[in-house]
């Protein structure tokens, strides 16, 4: 029994380990504001890693291997990365490497797929790039984040701190109560008239 477990576990480790789930080819970054990195890990993975932006095209990134964050807590499964001091480079064929430390950029734990960093599409008026929008895109269970808005830091312990039961949107409760009161008043007005 135990042997079977060990065999299964070691298979799982080799099959999984750290994996970058975003950014990706289909969902890149913008050049405006902080950008989100999400990943998966297994229990045997290192507890922390350093995030490095890479691009083989020197016309896009004159200096390769830009360290975006060091000592990221791997158990968070998501973090928000501020732009480099010179701002985000813009172009295609970027990759993000999760490496062991800023001193060991070649010890790569995981590598993202190639992705783009492009100016945001002009959908709304958000030009100043708010650091965190509430995630409206459907997420797979593995990348579900529930990042509290306004928490732009990499620290904290938001991995599974959500206490809201699913399906109960706290914002909608007062609205329902409110419209209930309104209809009571409407009824009263009807009878009083
Ligand atoms: C980073 O992870 C390594 C290996 O898991 C651990 O030895 C080290 O203490 C961690 N460092 C920090 C700052 O958490």
TrEMBL record:
Biased composition (Low complexity): 126-149
Region of interest (Disordered), residue spans: 113-167
Database matches in Pfam families: Kre9_KNH (PF10342)
The keyword Oxidoreductase is assigned to this record: no
Yeast cell wall synthesis Kre9/Knh1-like N-terminal domain residues: 23-117
Annotated keywords: Signal
Signal peptide region: 1-17
Name recorded for this polypeptide: Yeast cell wall synthesis Kre9/Knh1-like N-terminal domain-containing protein
Origin species: Collybia nuda
Lineage: Eukaryota, Fungi, Dikarya, Basidiomycota, Agaricomycotina
């Amino acid at each position: 029994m135990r042997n079977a477990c060990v065999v299964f576990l070691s298979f799982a480790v080799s099959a999984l380990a750290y994996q970058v789930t975003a950014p990706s080819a289909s969902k890149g970054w913008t050049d405006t504001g902080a950008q989100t990195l999400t990943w998966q890990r297994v229990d045997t993975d290192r507890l922390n890693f350093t995030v490095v932006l890479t691009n083989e095209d020197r016309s896009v990134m004159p200096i390769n291997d830009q360290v975006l964050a060091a000592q990221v807590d791997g158990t968070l499964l998501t973090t928000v990365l501020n732009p480099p001091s010179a701002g985000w480079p813009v172009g295609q064929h970027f990759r993000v490497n999760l490496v062991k430390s800023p001193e060991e950029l070649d010890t790569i734990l995981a590598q993202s797929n190639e992705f783009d960093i492009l100016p945001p599409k002009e959908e709304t008026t958000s030009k100043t790039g708010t650091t965190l929008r509430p995630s409206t895109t459907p997420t797979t269970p593995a990348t579900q984040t529930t990042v509290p808005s306004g928490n732009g830091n990499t620290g904290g312990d938001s991995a599974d701190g959500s206490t809201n039961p699913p399906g109960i949107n706290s914002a909608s409760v007062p609205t329902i109560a409110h419209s209930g009161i309104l209809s009571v008043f409407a009824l009263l007005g009807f009878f009083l008239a």
